[in-house]
Amino acid sequence: MKRLLKTNEFYVTIVLVLLIIYIGSQNSAFLSINNWFDLIRSAIVPVIFVIGTLLVLISGGIDVSFPAIAALSMYTTTSIITNTGYDGPVIVAFMISALIGLLLGFINAIFIAFLKLPALIVTLGTASIYSGFLLTFIDDGQITRLPEAMTNLSKTRIFEITTETGMIGIPVVFLITIAIVILGWFLLKYSMLGRSIYALGGDEVSAERMGISPVKVKVFVYCFVGTLAGIAGMIHTIMGRNSNASDLLGGELLIIAAVVLGGARITGGHGTIYGSLVALLLILIIENSLILLGIPSYWQRFVIGALILIGTGFSAVQVKRSLESRNPILTE
């Protein structure tokens, strides 16, 4: 129990439950099926981003380029598909977008793993390059006519229910998100690679002495993030039934806030799938409730910034207490 009380996940879960109760008591629309289905739909892409960002932070790195990678991957893929007239299985589009994302992630890995440049500087630079290319060299920046196969997939639901406002349902692409969550959970909890990621983030020198290759782990992590970004971008295109070059850009702050608030430390070595997802749900509900309660949308950035400070501050306190417990002399 004492160990549970020291985790971010515990307090975030408590806050989430209390927030749901409070908002539900203030606005009955919040508890409606329509609203919760909207929340699920709005979480499909962010959840994928969260999984990738979590792995990067656990490894001791950081990546702020994933929204730009997602945008460039999805737009390039959609352009290829529409210009060639391809209308076959949609999995081909996912494979192309994932491959583009992997290659863009590998570019990050080259500078970070091989050239040993700071991850934040590298990913800020590549994010600017990718987004700048999209916004500068692409004419209208939007593709609205998708192949029929992609349009049909966007209309496919796992299940549907009838409400007062009509039929609502969960998109079938939600299953892809679930599969990625399971993959991330298995990778971190049960695989040797997952243990290597934690070890690398905890202490890179010690990890290398244990026989772990920092270069190989970093290459995997950044390529994995890029691949997930490519998949997330394609899902975004299918759900929105269009590909807009400016979509998804600038969304990294919300994702990093969720992962940090959920217990991942900026210094690396810590973080869980559960904590990150609960924190993401908390942030999405806060955004949703601001709208329902009539609070101006510009307060969203204030709230997200505050949550980053709270999450980082809580993690810093945990690290300090951990060091003091191991080295009592530090407290003297």
From TrEMBL:
Residues passing through the membrane, by range: 12-33, 39-57, 90-112, 119-138, 168-188, 219-239, 245-264, 271-292, 298-317
GO cellular component, one term: plasma membrane
GO molecular function: transmembrane transporter activity
Major subcellular location class: membrane
Domain of life: Bacteria
Compartments, as annotated in UniProt: Cell membrane
Classification via Pfam families: BPD_transp_2
Keywords attached to this entry: Cell inner membrane, Cell membrane, Membrane, Transmembrane, Transmembrane helix, Transport
Membrane topology: Multi-pass membrane protein
InterPro entries on file: ABC_transp_permease (IPR001851)
PANTHER family: ABC TRANSPORTER PERMEASE PROTEIN YPHD-RELATED, ABC TRANSPORTER PERMEASE PROTEIN YPHD-RELATED-RELATED
Protein name: Monosaccharide ABC transporter membrane protein (CUT2 family)
